[in-house]
Each structure stands twice: as structure tokens, then as C-alpha cells.
Write a structure and sequence with these properties.
Layout lengths: L1 E5 L3 H11 L5 E5 L2 H10 L5 E4 L11 H10 L4 E5 L7 H10 L5 E4 L4 H13 L6 H4 L11 H5 L6 H9 L3 H8 L3 H23 L14 H10 L3 H4 L2 H10 L9 H14 L1
Parallel strand pairs: 1-2, 1-3, 3-4, 4-5
Helix pairs in contact: 1-5, 2-3, 8-9, 8-11, 9-10, 10-11, 10-14
Length: 269
């Protein structure tokens, strides 16, 4: 089997090569999505790809661009990322939202045996163990995923960018070119979604940045969520994929938003 590793770190490619060496597999590396596309213009004979989500500050694209290129050539992909880093969360949600055929998620802390189990499953024509990716995939039981609730349309992205940069309501409104009332409404709708998401994925509620009952608590919570995810909100591929996926369609209420109502009532007590 010929295997791609799309990662800016050569040591990651070497690690995969070492893990699959006894199986006689060939490993080829691409340092970023642009290099991957150039490679695929000449050679598409690959049966599996391990894809990182971040490629360092010199890269202008994220792993979403790599997944899109691989999807175009029907090459099975595995998201291969550091799951402990919270700034990867939205990229992980987007990977399985926009490219549902992505096989599974694999932590970079995984051992050789886990890597080989995925390679062997693909080689047999089977689906690798999907349990690690289940937490990031949109729920089939809910009308709207967490990502859809956080970014309902591309016009939400300027607000998220402002929230990632500033913490004062008036300054955020100015940066996003909208009214303070719109910012307040945006915050009140997103804060409970963030609480539900973090409780589900990390088993922890959002920890208020200031004492309960103080006026700016939801604003600071949302800013604290936006800051590590600034790269996501500024990613041009994110904007394009969101527009292609659901554009300006209204997002229905889901379990997460209903959880938000209960969370708000609790915080007011």
C-alpha cells in the first residue's frame, strides 16, 4: 500500500514509515496542502492519507484544504492530529462536518499498533475503528451540529474575528461593523452552545472568567473561546466551505441550544 502523510514535521512522516515498515508499505510525505496538490497532479496512486490540521505559520492553508484535495481524488483520509490542543477543536468538527467520508481520527500520541490497525483495515477494504472520531462528527439525531450553531452563516465570521481580538463590547461592535445590540444577541446565543460543546467533549462546563452574576460574564466566556480558535475564524477555506455547505439557511434548534436555555437559567440563580 502507498500511504501519504500530510504534515509539516518530517518526524511525523518518519514515525508512520517506521510503524508500517514491516508490512512493506511505502510512505510519501507532503509538507502542506499546496505541496499535496502538486504531488497529486503527478501521482494519485495512494490508498490512504494521514492528515494533520495545522502546518505552521508559513502555511496559508489548513488541513481542510488537504482533506478537500484528497476527497477530490477519492483517497481515504485519517485526521492525524494532537487531540489535546483546544485550538484544534473547530478544525476537527469542520473536518468531519464537511468531509464525512474521512475514515477516523487518530491522535499523534497513538502507537505503532494503532497506526497499523488502520492501515490493515483500509487494506482489507474495511472501515477503521470510528470510535475516536465519533465525538467530532455531527450527530444524526440533531438537526444542527455544534459547528452550525456556532457559525450559522459566513456573515458570522467577522463577529467571531472581532471576539477573538477584543473584549470590550463597543470595540467588538466597531471591529465587526455592527451594532452593540447585535453583538450582545450573538453572545447570548453562542455562549450556551459553547458551554454544551465543552461539557460534552471535555466533561467540563465553561468556567466563568469573572464572578457569577456579573454583567460581562457571557462576553468574556465567548471571547475566551474565540481567542484560541482565531485561526479557524480567519481561514478562507472555512468561509468557503461554510458558504457551500449551508449558506444562509436558517439553523434549527437542537439539543445543544435547549441545553443552553437550562444553562442560562442556572447561571441566573
Amino acid at each position: 500500500m502507498r500511504i501519504l502523510v500530510v504534515d509539516d514535521m518530517l518526524v511525523v512522516e518518519s514515525g508512520v514509515a517506521r510503524a508500517v515498515d514491516e508490512g512493506g508499505h511505502t510512505v510519501v510525505g507532503a509538507r502542506d496542502p499546496a505541496a499535496l496538490r502538486r504531488l497529486l497532479e503527478q501521482d494519485t496512486d495512494f490508498q490512504l492519507a494521514f492528515v494533520d490540521l495545522h502546518y505552521g505559520r508559513s502555511a496559508t492553508e489548513s488541513g481542510l484544504a488537504a482533506l478537500e484535495a484528497l476527497d477530490h481524488h477519492n483517497i481515504p483520509s485519517v485526521v492525524f492530529s494532537a487531540d489535546g490542543e483546544q485550538n484544534r477543536l473547530l478544525f476537527l468538527l469542520a473536518a468531519f462536518e464537511f468531509f464525512p467520508e474521512t475514515s477516523t481520527f487518530l491522535s499523534k500520541h497513538a502507537g505503532d499498533q494503532t497506526i497499523n490497525s488502520i492501515v490493515e483495515a483500509i487494506g482489507r477494504g474495511d472501515t477503521p475503528n470510528g470510535a475516536p472520531s465519533r465525538r467530532y462528527r455531527p450527530s444524526r439525531k440533531e438537526p444542527a451540529s455544534y459547528l452550525q450553531q456556532l457559525v450559522r452563516r459566513t456573515s458570522d465570521l467577522p463577529l467571531w474575528r472581532a471576539l477573538a481580538t477584543h473584549t470590550t463590547l463597543s470595540v467588538i461592535a466597531g471591529a465587526a461593523h455592527c451594532s452593540q445590540r447585535k453583538v450582545s444577541l450573538f453572545i447570548s446565543e453562542r455562549q450556551p452552545v459553547i458551554a454544551a460543546l465543552q461539557q460534552q467533549l471535555f466533561d467540563l462546563p465553561v468556567v466563568p472568567a469573572v464572578r457569577e452574576g456579573e454583567r460581562n460574564t457571557p462576553l468574556l466566556e465567548v471571547c475566551r473561546f474565540a481567542q484560541p480558535n482565531a485561526d479557524f475564524f480567519n481561514d478562507p477555506d472555512v468561509e468557503r466551505l461554510i458558504d457551500q455547505a449551508w449558506g444562509d439557511r436558517p439553523v434549527q434548534r437542537s439539543a445543544a441550544s435547549r441545553f443552553g436555555d437550562a444553562y442560562r437559567r442556572k447561571m441566573r440563580k
